[in-house]
Amino acid sequence: MNEPLRPVHDDVGGPAQPLLTIRGLQKHYPLAKGLLGRGGGSVRAVDGIDFEVRKGETLGVVGESGCGKSTTARLLMQLIRPTAGEVVFDGRTVGGRDLPLKQFHRQVQMVFQDSYASLNPRLTIEDSIAFGPQVHGSGRRPAVQRARDLLARVGLEPQRFAERYPHELSGGQRQRVNIARALALQPRLLILDEAVSALDKSVEAQVINLLLDLKAEFGLTYLFISHDLQVVRYLSDRVMVMYLGRVAELGPSESLYAGPLHPYTRALLSSMPSMDPDHRTERALLAGDPPNPIDPPAGCRFHPRCPDAAPVCGQRAPVLAARRGAHTVACLMHEPGSGHPAAT
Ligand SMILES: Nc1ncnc2c1ncn2[C@@H]1O[C@H](COP(=O)(O)OP(=O)(O)OP(=O)(O)O)[C@@H](O)[C@H]1O
Ligand code: SF4
Ligand SMILES: [Mg+2]
User: For a pocket test of ligand 2, which of 265, 266, 268, 303 has the largest count of ligand atoms closer than 8 A to its C-beta?
Assistant: First the structure.
């Protein structure tokens, strides 16, 4: 590969400082008022979450549709304004004097599910990839050269593909282009929001392996959002489980998959097809009403559906805290003295 574009960012805080620290992040969408001025209220898409993304890790994010995964990703990318909370990148508050948005956007890039919508249909893929660096001050020539290097790196031969337009590619090829485009600015963090979910299984596996290779080669950190619990397990060092705009559980992949602490995580995992055909049982799937972020239940948000709910669960909101090593959970059963009969 030719000389890469000069990196504009350094590791500020060293390996122990999280790459991303999220504090009290909220996004409420106001609802339109009714004719008599009644109603109002809001959709609490993300409702007060705190977590970290460590340097060099892949943090997986799972949870049912509508639990706030994409809203979280958009908030992190600063594509939408939070109702409250802050995002700190390598020790610096994003969007302030500390770390202006333009500098932040060089370091964090996002890949979405819809490979087609993210590419300009009127630009060749080489120009699409070279666009970002040019906006950030690179000359056309080095930007195009880097685009070609990156095309080769993501498995698309530049001679064959550079001049093509998005509609001339398959979904998997387009997603490779989107990955190349995301890497053109030499980011440190990639947010992958269902980035492989629309692909056929065999293509998906190839793109996942490409993501693993690129991560090692470029020293990247990933936030990997997916419905697919198997894929998340395969890729992630740690996994965060979201429920109705909150974090239910967050822990090392192995610990979380082998011994989920939150009843919601247990339900999610039990709906996952077992790899072992001898243990393929039909266990209870998630019961009860689907979650509604407009009027979330009081106390623990999961209590109307929770098989372990006790009276206190409708009155008191659990706090996310470490309960087994680095494994954190928000459930009153694991909160000493909470009043839940199973609490110690
Ligand atoms: N612009 C918006 N205005 C109002 N409500 C919104 C808006 N964007 C998202 N929401 C709502 O916020 C909640 C969270 O949506 P979000 O897209 O973050 O969920 P998700 O976890 O990514 O779901 P999926 O798995 O289906 O992608 C949903 O109830 C959604 O309807
Ligand atoms: S706090 Fe109560 S309702 Fe919520 S997950 Fe724990 S046991 Fe279930
Ligand atoms: Mg989503």
Answer: 303
| Token output for 251 | 């822990």
- Ligand 1 within 6 A of CB of 293: yes
Q: Which two tokens stand for residue 66?
A: 């509508």
pLDDT given for residue 2 in this prediction = 47
Token pair for residue 324?
């087994």
Give the strands of the sheet with 84-89, arranged side by side. Answer: 42-53, 20-30, 84-89, 92-93
Ligand 2 pocket, residue 308 CB under 6 Å: yes
In contact, 195 and 112? CB cutoff 8 Å:
yes
Query: What burial letters (b/e) apply to 80-113, b meaning 16+ CB within 10 Å?
Result: eebbebebbbbebebbeeebeeeebbbbbbbbbb
Reported as a single tens digit per residue, the pLDDT across 85-121 is 999 999 999 998 889 999 999 999 999 988 778 899 9
In the predicted structure, residue 60 carries a pLDDT above the cut 60 = yes
CA of 85 to the centre of ligand 2 (A): 25
pLDDT at 309: 96
Ligand 2 pocket test, candidate residues 246, 247, 306, 338, most atoms within 8 A of CB: 306
Beta strands 238-243 and 189-193 are unpaired
* Structure tokens belonging to residue 226: 């997916």
Q: What is the DSSP letter of 275?
A: S
For CA atoms 294, 295, 298, 302, give the dihedral sign.
negative
Looking at the CA of residue 316, tell me the nearest atom of ligand 2: 1
Tell me how far apart the terminal alpha carbons of the chain are, to the nearest angstrom: 58
- The DSSP 8-state label assigned to residue 285 in this structure reads -
Segment (H or E) for 148: helix 140-153
* Local structure of residue 288 (DSSP, 8 states): S
